[in-house]
Amino acid sequence: MIILSGKNIKKSYGIDVILEDISFTVQENDKIGIVGVNGSGKSTFFNIITGSLERENGEIYISKNVRIGYMPQNPGFESDNTIFDEMLAVFSHVIQIEKEICELEMKISRLDNPVDKKAIEPLLKTYAILQEKYKENDGFGYKSRIRGVLKGLSFLEEDYDKPVSALSGGQKTRVALGKILLQDYNMLLLDEPTNSLDIQSVEWLEEYLKNIRCTMLIISHDRYFLDIVTNKTFEIENRTLREYSGSYSKYIKEKQQLREILQKDYAGQQKEISRQKAIIARFRQYNREKSIRQAESREKALARIEKIDKPYSFSKNIGLKFESGIRSGNDVLFIENLSKSFEDLLFANISFEVKRGERVALLGPNGIGKTTMLKIIAGIIKADTGNVRLGTNVIEGYYDQEQENLNYDNTIIDEIWNEYPQLNQTELRTKLAAFLFPEEDVFKNIGKLSGGERSRVALLKLILSKSNFLLLDEPTNHLDIPSKEALENALINYSGTVLLVSHDRYFLNKTATRVIELKQDSCLQYNGNYSYYINKRGLSADCMSNLKQTESETVISAKNDWLKQKEEESNLRKQQRRLEAVESEITQSEELIKEIDEMLASPEIFSDHVKCQELHNKKEDLKSGLDTLYEEWSKLSE
Description:
There is one protein chain. The chain has 5 domains: about 1-80 and about 165-245, 3-Layer(aba) Sandwich (Rossmann fold); about 85-160, no CATH class; about 255-305; about 330-410 and about 460-555, P-loop containing nucleotide triphosphate hydrolases (Rossmann fold, 3-Layer(aba) Sandwich), CATH 3.40.50.300; about 570-635. Helix content is about 50%, strand content about 20%. The chain contains 22 helices and 18 strands. It has helices at about 40-50, 85-90, 90-110, 115-120, 120-135, 140-150, 170-180, 200-210, 225-230, 250-285, 290-305, 370-375, 410-420, 425-435, 450-465, 480-490, 505-510, 530-545, 550-555, 560-600, 605, 610-635; strands spanning about 1-15, 15-25, 30-35, 55-60, 70, 185-190, 215-220, 230-235, 240-245, 330-340, 345-355, 360-365, 385-390, 395-400, 470-475, 495-500, 515-520, 525. It has a 6-stranded mixed sheet, with helices on both faces. Strands 14-15-16-12-17-18 form a 6-stranded mixed sheet, sandwiched between helices. Helix 3 packs antiparallel against helix 5 (about 120-135). It is globular.
């Protein structure tokens, strides 16, 4: 059933058209991801649906039974309540029923004489009605629901009495999200709901949204989150909206296929138009009455062709490519018994190794010390105890999520030139243009840039360093999806070594070859990407429910991981060589069978029964062997 739709919607700000002729439909219980580059009009789209922005043209239909809950990207949430009291405000109607029940109980308990007892019957009837109403409104479970949501959003019980006014911006956003989730809405509009959440909270939110019966429209740059929660995608691009079935990954494939088809159709039509124009020009060159009529006829036919619009091109993307100056040794990093405290202990007794060519993701809850670990390795701060040792010819390059290594008083061109004075102006401006800083943009002040622009400056400095060991702290922060994809491809094709911290699980899934989960007194290591880590972590949890494993059983050393990886690579090479050999044997057997068939068809052989029998037996042996070869080939190809 359609519960929300729009037709021919248009919205402009002055002469800038943001949305034009937007049409869409939303079915009950759809879970829709809204994607598009920054500034494409996604939040404007939400504000038009909620009515907080007027549209210039078009119609919006909302079913009369729809109750919309909207959480903007920056809710600007303020309150003098405590966190728990703010959540209780969602259930004020239930608390009022609770109050009425208590008052009625007191009134009934005071009735003790025969006259009063005549009045008890209607009171008991009212009491029964209130009890039923209380039950229907989850009166017995609403406090438990509040605690569940607060816990899922990473609030501890000791946080419940904190005033909302004393919280950080990110914590206030989490309180606002919690209130939205607890209310009785049947349609949610969520604008970047995973902002300010750590991975554990995002995973909880995914499960929560997956399991509630509710229509959802979600704006998010978290591609992993969209893949798990959504079943449909709206893309806003070039002022228009296109609907795709399926989650983010399916949308990407479908979009690419559609773009290729449109490009092929457009190119084919342009080729045909050019061919017809050449024929028309040739006919006119003849300058004969008949040829001129033919030219005019073709011109009319050409004018009647419904022209295919040129497919919209993606906006230019960041030109990312990491190169290492020299090759490091095989052993890149050794961490031994590392410990660090500030006011409280972050971590202790941490040991692991990193080998050349690995892309290692460092995971763990907020506050465990992941950024501190990178800064210790980069030599920015010192560990309390333990050793950090780099291997032979290792050159570090550190990307700081806070970009503290940028001078905010510099212009963009000066920031790069001061670090790399050997570049001439042409080289430097070419590189800046590849990072989307063309012409006069290079003279912008670093302090006045957006977060995404500063990230691009920091990434360019990192690339120019030609480091062979990259330490990346939240490198996808402030980047839109196309820039994230460019960074992913650059890291995948990088010949050096990477140790990274990120909350972007889609990014981790594409780039990481190993995961280290940092705990306060140990680290667990998983030889695979993020999905492998999640799978193994789940299996470990099941095993641990009945059996307590010692640290030595759960902590796998990086050296053993590396040896295992090398063994797997060796086995893979052997399998590939055997596959090629089997394919060659199959080809030879098929050719021999073909030759025997040709020989059996010749009169000379056909008349020689002994020879025929020999060839027939040989053919049967070959066919039997071929069956075996095909069976082996099938297994090797899996």
